[in-house]
């Protein structure tokens, strides 16, 4: 028999409350279960100790017996230190590809060239203004 550790929903409409149960994998979500090992109240604050209640000893027993936790229950077990949960996201998935990296490098090079040209253009009028002042001073003296 395939055994699952999962959430069973209770509570009224728009006010969820979940029981953490061990059940036959073929049983309906809110149907018959083998044992209740905890509860989860998502309406409480995340730092509230009453938000997740879990009997770690029974959870460990059922894991040893072959029960498979759902994703959410696996998170609870990891937070309780009962079962280590591997990270599921691929950190390299969001990285740009080779062509995008090349385009970004080219764009950065063009921006650097434009900044240098702007600095040179700003420096050139200042030199011209200094040369004009010197010329005007020479004419005034002469």
From TrEMBL:
Residues 84-142 are annotated as: Disordered. The keyword Mitochondrion does not apply. GO terms for cellular component: cytoplasm; small ribosomal subunit. Keywords: Ribonucleoprotein, Ribosomal protein. Residues 84-119 have a biased composition (Basic and acidic residues). InterPro entries: Ribosomal_bS16, Ribosomal_bS16_dom_sf. The keyword DNA repair does not apply. GO terms for biological process: translation. Residues 129-142 have a biased composition (Acidic residues). GO terms for molecular function: structural constituent of ribosome. Belongs to the bacterial ribosomal protein bS16 family. PANTHER family: 30S RIBOSOMAL PROTEIN S16 (PTHR12919), SMALL RIBOSOMAL SUBUNIT PROTEIN BS16M (PTHR12919:SF20). NCBIfam families: S16 (TIGR00002). HAMAP family: Ribosomal_bS16. This is Small ribosomal subunit protein bS16. The gene is rpsP.
């Amino acid at each position: 028999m395939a055994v699952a550790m999962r959430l069973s929903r209770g509570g009224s409409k728009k006010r969820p409350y979940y029981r953490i149960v061990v059940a036959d994998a073929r049983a309906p979500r809110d149907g018959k279960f083998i044992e209740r090992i905890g509860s989860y109240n998502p309406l409480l604050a995340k730092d509230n100790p009453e938000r997740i209640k879990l009997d770690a000893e029974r959870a460990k027993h059922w894991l040893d017996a072959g029960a498979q936790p759902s994703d959410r229950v696996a998170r609870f077990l990891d937070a309780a230190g009962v079962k280590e949960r591997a990270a599921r996201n691929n950190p390299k998935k969001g990285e740009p590809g080779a062509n995008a990296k090349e385009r970004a490098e080219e764009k950065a090079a063009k921006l650097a060239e434009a900044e240098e040209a702007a600095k040179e253009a700003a420096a050139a009028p200042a030199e011209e203004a200094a040369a004009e002042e010197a010329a005007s001073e020479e004419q005034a003296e002469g």
